[in-house]
Amino acid sequence: MMLMYSLIPVLLAKTDVIVPEMPVGSVTAAPFIPIPIVLIFCVLLCLMKRKGIWNFARQIMIAVLIFLINLRIGIPTASVDTYSNNVKILFVVDNTISMQAEDYQGDGIRMNAVQDHIGRIMDEFEGARYAVMAFNDISGNVQVPYTTDKKTVTQAIGALEGRSKIYASGSSFNVILTPLRDYLEGTYSRDEDDEEEKKPADDAIQLLFFFSDGEMNTDEKLKSFDVIAESIDGGAVFGYGTTAGGQMRVREYSSSEEKVVLTYIDKTGHQVTAKSKIDESTLKKLAEDMNISYKHILKDSDILDITEGIKSRIDSGEMTATTVEGYGRYEITFVFAGILFALVIYDLVYYGRKMGRGQ
Hints:
Oligomer: single chain
Structural class: alpha/beta
Largest sheet: 6 strands, mixed
Strand order of the largest sheet: 7-6-3-8-9-16
Radius of gyration: 31 Å
């Protein structure tokens, strides 16, 4: 008998089974283990006759409960929450000159780190659809529309290196707000007559990752990005740079092959090396407006700290819940399991005492 009880956890262990489609409004079953196997086990359990009517009755009850638990009986409810695992990721990249600053983990270029980190995120969300938007000091637009081709995304990110020195001017996040909102809402188009790009948004889980150093050096006031929050389910703003700042190497002209250190003439008339410093206050405001987290990226693993949290929220069904009427299912297995647990404990105590008395 003790051996038989030791087999119960094994037989009740969940195995991978295909649950048949559930008809609306009906009691259903989704067995852990094929019914014939459990039925044979329960019959054998009943054939192990005990002394005493109450003892034998408990044995039959235990067998019946094991059979019922395995059935995973579900009763219909009014509704159930269902969740989509279809994920879309939009990478928004600051492509102003300041992202060429050399202060990531020493003298690493900020944009190079962004390129590597986007690759890591795509690896973390394998099978998702990815898109890239970038903005410089005058405009923001789509570099890559949604695609599953990671190579295309990698190539597009690799080509970002800011505007040449002669054309660079003060940067502002406001240039990306409208195109970003339109793209998320499905109304974006580079050309007003291009109807093919004006597609409605779907019901996928929409994530947004924003990469920037937060530097705004125009007289413009940062506009609110709270309209973006309505169109995304999660994501993060990633900040790059240091408070000490880093120098920038840029092309003097678009056709230049070599890059030169960016300099400027200060108030005293001296030529000074330009340095870009992170502005976390701007980045935190962006994250707050869009209702997503902010992370100052100091090392590569900082990216994974954020993605792991988002993946767990998706896996737990926290994102994009929709209610479907009439397809609810409430399992009552725990009721039978509670009774079985009580009977098994009673039996263990009962036979333990008998063995202690030498009977």
